[in-house]
Amino acid sequence: MTDFQRGKQLVLDYYRALDGSSHETVAAVIADHVTEDYFWRGMHPFYEQRGANAVAEVFWQPFKHAFNRLQRRPDVFMAGLNDVDGFNTEWVCSMGHLMGLFDHDWLGIPSSGKMGFLRYCEFNRIEGGKIAETALFVDIIGLMQQVGLNPLPLQTGAALITPGPMTHDGLLYERQPAEEGRKTLDLVNRMADELTSSGMHSEAGELGNTWHDDMLWFGPAGIGAAYTQERYEKQHQGPFAEGLEDIVFHGHVSRIAEGNYAGWFGWANLEMKASGGFLGMPASDRPTEMRVVDIYRRDGDKLAENWIFIDLLHYLFKQDLDVLGRMKSILRT
Question: C-alpha distances in angstroms, 119 versus 161, 169, 174, 202, 262?
Fold first, then answer.
């Protein structure tokens, strides 16, 4: 058995206090649970922040002002030692939705006065009984779509509220057998090696080496979800390969596994150029980057489900498309 229980409990206690705080008290709550040199990564337009006050000011205070009666609705909760740094650091990962009453505008997105779901995935590094480092990915484009704004062309996959694991066993609050985590980590690493060696595009038949035929791939809003190997190839991998070129893999910051689940994030994972068409963008010689999260569920000896977060707003901003700025300009007219 591998024991990450103290780290898990630290994060659960933090979430309980954080979710119950107001926008006036959230900075103090964060400070109680993090180190003095706390380092936080967030998606566009938040980026990198240091210290509890900066994180509260940039993200949590505006978000808590916009969303009333906030609920955290996790679908996956796991912990593990980081494969990237030789298993020297401990990370705890949570994925699901932040749900509340969207009563005030946020980032210029007009409030609906109705329930709003912000899809999230967060990685927290534990050090000395505190949270020393966080990466928080949220699907802002998904929230825009919920209020009737569609900032990108029609998605290649399905647009929907993303469900959790089909098996409903993703909340690993209890200790897990170490051997199961090793199996999962070995499998996702083998899958990643095959993918990166083929230029981030699996050849026909290669997916079956590590994926079940009825795989589920839940991409970010703007790309969408795909079901089965054939539709994943048609609705995501094909457009990705056709619209991007000169793709370079830069690796990950954290890569962990526990039980049947694994996850990683990079900052940035990938660098590429637009050959034209992907997300409606024209061809460009300008290199840009993608910051990506992947969460996996293993079923037996193959992968069954995959949840993906991509900082698409940052990716587009690097190509001079300011999605949030354009939205504000349109709404003013």
Answer: 9, 19, 24, 27, 18
Q: Structure tokens of 311?
A: 């900082």
C-alpha distances out from residue 327 to 25, 65, 154, 296, Å? 30, 20, 17, 33
CA–CA gap between residue 72 and residue 240 (Å, rounded): 32
DSSP sequence for 62-80: HHHHHEEEEEEEEEEEEEE
Taking the C-alpha atoms of residue 155 and residue 235, their distance in angstroms, rounded to an integer, is 9
Q: What token pair was written down for 262?
A: 């694994």
pLDDT of residue 156: 85
User: What is residue 261's predicted lDDT score, i.e. its pLDDT?
Assistant: 98
What's the residue count for the chain?
A: 333
Q: Which of 315, 318, 317 is nearest to 292 (CA)?
A: 315
Burial class (CB in 10 A: 0-12, 13-18, 19+), 307: buried
Q: What is the distance between the alpha carbons of residues 91 and 82, in angstroms, rounded to a whole number?
A: 7
Query: In this predicted model, what pLDDT tens digit does every residue of 136-172 receive, in sequence order?
Result: 999 999 999 999 999 998 888 888 889 999 999 999 9
Q: What is the DSSP letter of 162?
A: P
> In a 3-state reduction of DSSP, which class is residue 299?
strand
Inter-residue contact 276 to 283 (CB < 8 Å): yes
Residues in the chain predicted with pLDDT less than 70, given as ranges, are 1-2, 198-204
Which distant-in-sequence residues (6+ apart) come within 8 Å of 121 by Cβ? 93, 94, 95, 136, 137, 263, 265, 293, 295, 307, 309
Rounded CA-CA distance 126/219 in Å is: 28
Helix locations, 90-169, DSSP H: 140-146
Tokens of 26: 């959230």
- Are 139 and 116 in contact, with CB atoms under 8 Å apart? no
What CA–CA distances, in Å, run from 243 to 51, 109, 163, 330?
A: 39, 28, 28, 27
Structure tokens, 19:
């979710």
